[in-house]
C-alpha cells in the first residue's frame, strides 16, 4: 500500500518522502513539472536503491479532478499527504490568485478526488500551519490546537496575511468537507510554526531557500543591529521533526482526526543570532543585544494533548536546527 505525497519537491515534503522511503513505504509524489523531480528521483534512488518511488505531474492542483488521473493510475494508494500549497513570499500575482485559490481549491480538489476515485484510502493528512491558529493578539496567549485564526480574507492587504488566511481557509474547508461528505478516510492536519532545518540534499541549499529558513539567512546577512529583539519572532520546529510527525500521523491511531499543532521552542531573531555567534565566532556576525533577549515572552503554546496522541515526542532543539541550517548554507554558498 503506497503513500501519495503532493508537492513532493518542497522543502518539507522532500524530508517526508525521505522518511517514508527509509521506512520502506512505496511513494508516489506529485510535482508541477517533471524537471523539478528529476534531480530528486536521482538522489533518492542513490540513497535508497530499492526504493519504490514514482512521480506524477499535476500541473494545476486547483483544477476540478486534478488528482483523478493520479489516483486512477495508482489503485494501491492507502495514505495521502497533501503538502502542496504556496509557501513562498514574493509571488508576482494578485494575492487571491497567488495564495488563497491554490491553497483552498487545491485542498478541496484532492479531497474530492480521493472520495470519488480512491475509496480505499484510509488516511489523509494535510499540512496546515500555525498560521491557521495564530490570533494576532497583542497580549500573551498560550496557544493550543483548539485555537483558530480570526483572520478573514477581507482583512488581507499583504502577502503574509494572504498566506496566513490561505492556510486557515484551506484547513477549515478540509474539516468541513469531512463533516459534510463523510468520506471513507480519516483526516488529520499538521500545524507547524516556523520550520527551520537543513535541506534534504545539499544542492537544494544553493538555490533560493524557502521563506522560513530565509529568516536565518537574513539574520546571518544583516550587519550590526539590535532590531532582532522583536522581529522575527515566533515558535519554531525542525523540518526533520515535521517530516517524522507526518509519518506518525499515519501510523498512530490515537492521532487520527486530530489537529497536530507541533512546536519545539520560541525564538526571536536575537536568539538565532546568539546561537550563531556562540557556534560560529569566526563568522563575526552582528552582535545585537544578547542580554536583552527574552524568547519566552513572545507567546506560549501547550501541545501536551497532541504529543500524547502520537505516543510522546522529543523535538530537535533550536540550537541544533540553526547550526545545521547555517552550516549547510555556508557550505553551499561560499
Ligand atoms: P516549499 O515552497 O518548499 O514547498 C511548497 C510545495 O507546494 C512545492 O512543491 C510547490 O511546488 C507546491 N506549490 C506551491 N504553490 C503551488 C501552487 N500554486 N500549485 C501547486 N503546487 C504549489 O514550502 P514548504 O516545504 O515550506 O511548505 C510545505 C507546506 O508546509 C505548505 O503547505 C506550507 O504552507 C506548510 N508550512 C510550511 C511552514 C514553513 O515554515 N516552511 C510552516 C507551516 C506550514 P513548486 O516547487 O512547483 O512551487
From TrEMBL:
Keyword Acyltransferase applies: no
Annotated keywords: Oxidoreductase
One Pfam family named in its UniProt record: Epimerase
SUPFAM superfamilies: NAD(P)-binding Rossmann-fold domains
Gene3D superfamilies reported for this sequence: NAD(P)-binding Rossmann-like Domain (3.40.50.720)
Record family assignment: Belongs to the NAD(P)-dependent epimerase/dehydratase family. Dihydroflavonol-4-reductase subfamily.
PANTHER family, sorted: NAD DEPENDENT EPIMERASE/DEHYDRATASE, STEROL-4-ALPHA-CARBOXYLATE 3-DEHYDROGENASE, DECARBOXYLATING
Protein name, as recorded: NAD-dependent epimerase/dehydratase domain-containing protein
The organism of origin for this protein: Ogataea haglerorum
Lineage: Eukaryota, Fungi, Dikarya, Ascomycota, Saccharomycotina
